[in-house]
Amino acid sequence: MKRLLFVLALIAIIATIAACAPAPTPAPTAAPPTKAPEVKPTEAPKPTAVPPTAAPKPTDAPKPTDAPKPTEAPKPTVAPTAAAAAKPFRVAVIMPSAKNDLAFSQSMVDALTKVQTELGKDKFEFAYTDGLGNVPDAAAAIRDYAGKGFDLVIAHGSQYGASLADIAPDFPKTAFAWGTAADTFASKGVKNINAYTVQSDQGGYVEGVIAAKLSKSGSVGAIGPVPAGDGNLTILGFEAGAKATNPNIKVAKTFTNDFNNAALMSQAAQTMIAAGADVLTGTSQAVVGAISVAKDKNVLWFGNQSAQTSLANKVVVANQVYDWSPFIKQMIDNTKAGKLGGEVMIGTLKNKVLVIDYNKDYALPADVKKLADDTVQGLIDGKIQTGVK
User: CATH homologous superfamily of domain 201-321+359-381?
Assistant: First the structure.
């Protein structure tokens, strides 16, 4: 009850207070609203484009120090190719007469063939031009072979010397040789010419010894082209051997002044036989004329330079053969070693460039054969001298 009375009293008090308060001031007339000025928003300043700072290039790492190159081992010597290894040594020969003359030219062909057989065709080749008695033609052939790159060019004839001396200096890398001769032209400053010859008086001496033993008439004869060179040495040796064996023997000598004229050789042989000679010898390619007469007259014959037994095997007793093969092999070795000239080679019985070739079909008496063999050995040992200068 009391609570109710209290509430009522409180309400009365509040009402009294409200009646006593002044009237409220009228609200002012609302002024038209002033349009607020349009404020454009300030654009935010564009950000200054800052170029991107390039990242600094990374510092190059220092190049590694190259390791020192290893010392190269010496290159092995390259073995020659099959083609190079198979390259043969090549020889060219110029000759004055036919390759099968059974004399001077054939002696060289036979020697070259022998060397080829020993060394093999894969290691040794040779070419030749024969029948070049004309010196200008021979000179042209010499130059042609040298120009074709032959390792060794042989001018097989004493008449070729002057031409060779003129040509050789034009081919300083080619070896040359000529014979029979003993001049290398070194005195003229030529360095690539060799010379070869023979002491053919030795073989001639042996033939003279045998001839003196076999002669029944006490007369023998010798025929040559000219009194010079190896042919003349042979004839002089033949005379010396015959007279050493029989001091009373008659030795006729004739020179035809022609290397090629077989008819002149034939005439000389007939003249000697008519004068009583029953044993003959001779030199040069023209001796076929004399051998033919000896065969017809049954007169003994001694061959020279090449084996001539095949021309008359019933009357040919023996031959002094020029075997040039030792000289050819010597020049091959020298050329390969770089020595292209300056060598003088002299053929003798001792070095077997001179060979006494007996005809097996001729019945040489045993005592004569022994005397001949002893003479050969004496010449080799030096106990016998031919006396030929």
Answer: Response regulator (3.40.50.2300)
